[in-house]
């Protein structure tokens, strides 16, 4: 009797072991950016507001929610991108530490993981030193963790040149760039991120301005903190169509140099997709090898696709055209890559959001088992018409043209979703 019980327990152990060994990225992950540029200004606080949306987001099939940078920020950086006292989560415009923990717990209870926005390229100081320069940093704890001085700032930072090592990446103007080659910086930031995991409940990271330091630095923070999911903001400044092919290669190189497990936002897919839709030149969605032209065409398992975010959309630095947004979602939610959905599109666009159609696309993705590395076969990519088969199970069409569609779609496929200039078919059971 005793022996038999042991056997069952062993079986369970093996099953659990097996389940935990399945790599994170095999499932149909769908990210959600849970804020926009104005969210800090929400009456009653953003965390308290977003918690009311947890059931809807979980029901829609969202697996990971990206939350804004949670720490205290200096000056008027209300959105969180000029952080100072990193351990102080009570001085954020989005809400306090208890409200944040409650929100994360509410998502967890529904099986959804939260991703913290990690702003570590630069940091704002608390006080000026004896020469009047703002270089005295405070961590927000009673001890000296993250209490730094000028020696933690890169020597070539502008305007405050520190006495640390040269920056390993691009510079940021509004706050001092931190010297990530300093072992104390590495240890204290890793400890802080691990605290965000163990004490606050975050499961992973969205690295802000990942080009601000070398990919080896990202690799080190990922190794030290073992996130369930990590994505870097690899955003190059030139938005012209001609540059996107170079950029996707540089993004792939960054992913590899950062250890190969981390993912990157697929800015090239966003740029090419929106240009193709605006110009009606859907041939742009076929690269010279007959594949997808963005990072998803080269390294789909590490590419996080998106339509707009708090910068490109909210601040209109590179916005998708409103009436093309749904076609954009048809593309990213049926195609390889790890798709993400922006708050504004889901809840606010066209009075009431695109929630219903976006949720249906997520359901199609999930019931057909479309994965980041699913196969893509482009059936048509020409002026006004793009049609592609994913895993030979789902066919997606975008663009105004209707001719040719009948001849391209096999008889054993049926329409499961259609709208203005788009349609999706599924293989009949
Ligand atoms: C923030 O508030 C929480 C809950 O009241 C408290 O435990 C924590 O120590 C506070 N943090 C700071 C930096 O004051
Ligand atoms: C995609 O582009 C390649 C290379 O130009 C071409 O050979 C192929 O026919 C194109 N595919 C479609 C569906 O147009």
Automatic annotation (TrEMBL):
Q: Which UniProt keywords apply?
A: Carbohydrate metabolism, Glycosidase, Hydrolase, Metal-binding, Signal
Q: Which cofactor does it need?
A: Ca(2+)
The record's annotation in SUPFAM superfamilies points to:
(Trans)glycosidases, Glycosyl hydrolase domain
Name the Gene Ontology molecular function terms of this record: alpha-amylase activity; calcium ion binding
Query: What residues make up the catalytic site?
Result: 208 (nucleophile), 233 (proton donor)
Q: What is its EC number?
A: 3.2.1.1
Q: Which reaction does it catalyse?
A: Endohydrolysis of (1->4)-alpha-D-glucosidic linkages in polysaccharides containing three or more (1->4)-alpha-linked D-glucose units
Asked if Cell inner membrane is a keyword of the record, the answer is no
Q: What range(s) does the Alpha-amylase C-terminal beta-sheet domain occupy?
A: 366-427
Could you tell me which InterPro entries the record lists for this protein? A-amylase_bs_C, A-amylase_pln, Alpha_amylase, GH, GH13_cat_dom, Glyco_hydro_b
- Family classification: Belongs to the glycosyl hydrolase 13 family.
This one is known as Alpha-amylase
Please name the source species.
Carpinus fangiana
């Amino acid at each position: 009797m005793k022996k038999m019980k042991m056997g069952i327990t062993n079986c369970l152990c093996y099953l659990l072991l097996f389940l935990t060994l399945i790599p994170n990225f095999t499932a149909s992950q769908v990210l959600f950016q849970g804020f926009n540029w104005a969210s800090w200004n929400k009456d009653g606080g953003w965390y308290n507001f977003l918690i009311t949306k947890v059931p809807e987001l979980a029901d829609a099939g969202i697996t990971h929610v990206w939350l804004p940078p949670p720490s205290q920020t200096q000056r008027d950086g209300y959105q969180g991108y000029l952080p100072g006292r990193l351990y102080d989560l009570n001085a954020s415009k989005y809400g306090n530490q208890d409200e944040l923990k409650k929100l994360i717990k509410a998502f967890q209870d529904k099986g959804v993981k939260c991703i913290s926005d990690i702003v570590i390229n630069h940091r704002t100081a608390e006080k000026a030193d004896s020469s009047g320069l703002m270089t005295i940093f405070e961590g927000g704890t009673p001890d000296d963790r993250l209490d730094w001085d000028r020696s933690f700032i890169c020597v070539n930072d502008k305007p405050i040149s520190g006495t640390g090592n040269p920056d390993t990446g691009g510079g940021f103007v509004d706050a001092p760039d931190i010297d990530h080659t300093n072992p104390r910086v590495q240890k204290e930031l890793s400890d802080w991120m691990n605290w965000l995991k163990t004490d606050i409940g975050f499961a992973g990271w969205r690295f802000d301005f990942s080009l601000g330091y070398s990919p080896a630095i990202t690799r080190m923070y990922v190794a030290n903190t073992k996130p369930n999911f990590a994505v870097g903001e690899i955003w190059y400044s030139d938005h012209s169509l001609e540059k996107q092919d170079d950029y996707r290669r540089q993004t792939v190189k960054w992913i590899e140099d950062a250890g190969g497990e981390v993912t990157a936002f697929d800015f090239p897919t966003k740029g090419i997709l929106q240009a193709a839709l605006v110009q009606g030149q859907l041939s742009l969605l076929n690269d010279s090898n007959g594949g997808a032209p963005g990072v998803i065409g080269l390294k789909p398992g590490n590419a996080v696709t998106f339509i707009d975010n708090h910068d490109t959309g909210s601040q209109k630095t590179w916005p998708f055209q409103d009436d093309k947004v749904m076609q954009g979602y048809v593309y990213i939610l049926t195609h390889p890559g790890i798709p993400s959905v922006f708050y504004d599109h889901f809840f606010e666009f066209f009075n009431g959001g695109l929630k219903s159609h976006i949720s249906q696309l997520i359901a199609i993705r999930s019931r057909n088992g479309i994965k980041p590395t699913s196969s893509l076969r482009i059936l048509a990519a020409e002026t006004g018409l793009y049609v592609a088969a994913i895993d030979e199970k789902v066919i997606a069409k975008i663009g105004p043209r209707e001719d040719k569609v009948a001849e391209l779609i096999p008889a054993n496929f049926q329409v499961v979703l259609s709208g203005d200039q788009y349609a999706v078919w599924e293989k009949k059971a």
